[in-house]
Specification:
Layout: H1 3-50, H2 56-79
């Protein structure tokens, strides 16, 4: 076997290995992108389902303000 044939065969093997690695990387990247989209959808759904929880603080503050005002009115009525 001549050195040229050996060189061509070695080059072909290197190209096949590089191409297979590249295709594997591309397939993994596509899989990661699909998983990232699924995660994003799950996070958006969780945000929509829990958005009411963020209103609890303002509702609590409003209730505290109302009860404070009612207490002040009751104290003034008791003084009168």
């Amino acid at each position: 076997m001549s050195r040229w044939v050996l060189g061509w065969m070695t080059g072909a093997v290197v190209v096949v290995i590089a191409a297979s690695l590249l295709l594997t990387i591309i397939a993994l990247c596509r899989r990661i992108v699909a998983q990232a989209r699924d995660i994003e959808r799950a996070i958006d759904g969780a945000r929509e389902r829990t958005s009411a929880l963020f209103e609890v603080t303002s509702t609590n503050a409003t209730l505290e303000r109302i009860t404070g005002d009612l207490r002040a009115v009751r104290e003034r009525l008791e003084q009168a």
